[in-house]
Amino acid sequence: MANQNAGIEKSKLPKHLKIVSWAFIFLGFLALIETIYSLLNSPVFYINFFIVFIFVGFALIKKKELWRKFAISCSAVVLIFMIGNVLIVLSGKKTLSDLSAEIQITFWIQAILGIGASAYALWALQSKEVRKAFES
């Protein structure tokens, strides 16, 4: 019985890995919906390449090391991009004042969530617990 429990424990995914995996899957499906909407309703067809996040999320659940490294890279790029956008706006090189309040609020919500989520993903995917899960 102890051996069965040990096997079950080894197969369990760390909590933070589950959260990050499902976040990637969710973002991938949002990108898929946006792409389908573009195909059906827009004069210009737009493919949102974040669709690949669906595969990244499921590969993380299956503990594929290459995809963990890819997810870390994606998270780092998003973090740098979002911080860069915020710094550009705060420096005054680009202003939001000529945009509607709705767009300004959307920008700040996306910036805060993007920075927080990508920083969390970077931390989680490099944590000892998650790295250990990929070794087993």
**Fraction in beta strands:** under 5%
- Per the principal axes of the C-alpha atoms, what is the gross shape? globular
Helix content: over 70%
Number of strands: 0
Task: State mean pLDDT (0 to 100 scale).
Answer: 89
Distance between the termini: 21 Å
Rg over CA atoms: 19 Å
- Main beta sheet strand tally, sense and closure: none
Q: Helical segment tally?
A: 6
Number of domains: 1
Low-confidence stretches: 5-10
The SSE order reads HHHHHH
Structural class: mainly alpha
Oligomeric state: single chain
Descriptive report:
Helix 2 (15-41) packs antiparallel against helix 3 (52-61), helix 3 (52-61) packs across helix 4 and helix 4 (65-91) packs antiparallel against helix 5. This protein has helices at 2-11, 15-41, 52-61, 65-91, 101-126, 128-135. With 136 residues, it is mainly α. The chain is globular and about 55 Å long. The protein has one domain (2-135).
Relevant terms:
transmembrane helix, transmembrane, 79% helix, membrane, 0% strand, mainly alpha, 136 residues
Tell me the layout of helices and strands.
Blueprint: H1 2-11, H2 15-41, H3 52-61, H4 65-91, H5 101-126, H6 128-135
Offer a concise description of the structure.
The chain has 136 residues and is mainly alpha-helical. It contains six helices and no strands. The chain is globular and about 55 Å long.
